[in-house]
């Protein structure tokens, strides 16, 4: 169930805010027969239940669709029509949010444009009693102007998993700095194995973590450009070095979000999300370790990008109150379903701290270590980061990592784009 990437190096689930990450669109066919997802019986009046359309993108893990349908069927107060969307969910959703024939409830990542365009409604009333049970980052990424617009469904940390036996044989300890990572990837590369897999694009997914590990950010808390410092530029130069050393696996059958490369022994290390832990453990057993993206330098701090999906209520819904009631029931009240969704179809961290603390599958091994790393080093998206900003930042990464362009010059170009977007948003 990979989540969107940290504002760069977009993967199959970075559908909305940047390419959203962090949308544009086609007509939809309801997953449940010909149901349009709109209210039946005159909007639920006269004693009949409302029908709510709940939209999901297509998850990769077996059983996820069946789980979503199970939750929907169990809800007593409305008919829930689950729309399960393969392919370009982002474009379909962007179109649907402009129409009264779109979803009532949907998953996404928050973009400030959704708020400014009145596409989503605030959910402060349904989260108020449990707000302290959510991590600050999971609240911040769904908050605009002090109002919470979404309820986090899953948390998807992205880290580096590694083959213990390969590092041990080479006498290499898990890297603690970016220099260590570059050196380890080079030393672990042989004629049969590459040191690391970070995506078939050469490593764009590492751009956000590299900036954070150097003490920067994509946007500051007060919505200023946060990635243009000299230390961030130096961090990108090191990603370039790792690519130039030919330590990076390219041309893998699947991309970085799939554990095939590390499972098949093609690499010693792989950047990937916690969702892949069950598959890696099945293939590798105890020969699996994990570390955060290492600090860029002595003054930096390790980084864990904490992605995920969030549930929203469409402002175009004809049954906003009923939709909010359903979201509260499923993603706040039903602890059993929340744990099931996070941990029985790949591994993810339940956003509710109380649920995560009791989840048995997170209490040992690399899963427990990943949770610990996320708690200590995790960061998530600023909802003010727009698709245009994401494209500009991705261009920086492509030009620096693959083409050897000067990071400072590339940052300067991206800064102009980001400042233009900030001016548009905030004046």
TrEMBL record:
Asked if Lipoprotein is a keyword of the record, the answer is yes
Looking up InterPro entries in the UniProt record yields: Bact_solute-bd_prot1, SBP, TAT_signal
The UniProt entry, under Pfam families, shows: SBP_bac_1
Q: Which Gene3D superfamilies has this protein been placed in?
A: Periplasmic binding protein-like II
This protein's UniProt keywords: Cell membrane, Lipoprotein, Membrane, Palmitate, Signal, Sugar transport, Transport
- PROSITE patterns linked to this entry: TAT
Classify the source by domain of life. Answer: Bacteria
Q: What is this protein called?
A: Multiple sugar transport system substrate-binding protein
């Amino acid at each position: 169930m990979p989540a969107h990437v940290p504002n760069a190096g977009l993967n199959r689930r970075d559908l909305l805010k940047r390419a959203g990450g962090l949308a544009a669109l086609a007509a939809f066919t309801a997953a449940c027969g010909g149901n349009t997802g709109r209210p039946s019986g005159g909007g639920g009046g006269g004693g009949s239940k409302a029908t709510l359309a709940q939209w999901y993108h297509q998850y990769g893990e077996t059983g996820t669709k069946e789980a979503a349908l199970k939750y929907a069927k169990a809800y007593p107060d409305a008919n829930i029509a689950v729309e399960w969307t393969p392919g370009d969910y982002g474009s379909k959703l962007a179109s649907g949010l402009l129409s009264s024939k779109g979803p009532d409830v949907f998953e996404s990542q928050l973009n400030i444009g959704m708020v400014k365009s009145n596409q989503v409604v605030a959910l402060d009333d349904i989260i108020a009693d449990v707000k302290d049970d959510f991590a600050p980052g999971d609240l911040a990424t769904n908050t605009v102007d002090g109002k919470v617009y979404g309820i986090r469904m899953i948390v998807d940390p992205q880290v580096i998993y590694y083959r213990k036996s390969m590092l041990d044989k080479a006498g290499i300890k898990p890297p603690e700095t970016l220099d260590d990572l570059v050196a380890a990837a080079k030393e672990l590369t042989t004629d049969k194995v590459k040191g690391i897999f970070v995506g078939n694009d050469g490593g764009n997914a590492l751009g956000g973590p590299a900036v954070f590990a150097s003490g920067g950010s994509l946007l500051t808390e007060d919505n200023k450009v946060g990635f243009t410092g000299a230390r961030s530029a130096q961090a990108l130069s090191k990603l370039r070095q790792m690519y130039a050393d030919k330590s990076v696996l390219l041309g893998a059958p699947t991309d970085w979000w799939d554990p095939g490369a590390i499972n098949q022994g093609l690499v010693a290390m792989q950047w990937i999300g916690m969702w892949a832990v069950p598959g890696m453990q099945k293939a590798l057993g105890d020969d699996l370790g994990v570390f955060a993206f290492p600090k860029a330098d002595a003054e930096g701090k390790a980084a864990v990008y904490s992605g995920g999906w969030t549930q929203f209520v469409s402002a175009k819904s004809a049954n906003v109150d009923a939709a909010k009631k359903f979201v509260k029931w499923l993603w706040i009240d039903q602890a059993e379903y929340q744990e099931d969704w996070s941990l029985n179809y790949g591994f993810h961290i339940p956003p509710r701290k109380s649920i995560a603390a009791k989840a048995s599958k997170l209490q040992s091994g690399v899963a427990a270590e990943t949770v610990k790393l996320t708690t200590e080093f995790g960061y998530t998206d600023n909802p003010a980061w727009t698709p245009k900003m994401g494209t500009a930042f991705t261009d920086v990464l492509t030009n620096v990592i693959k083409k050897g362009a000067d990071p400072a010059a590339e940052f300067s170009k991206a800064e102009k784009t980001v400042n233009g977007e900030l001016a548009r948003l905030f004046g």
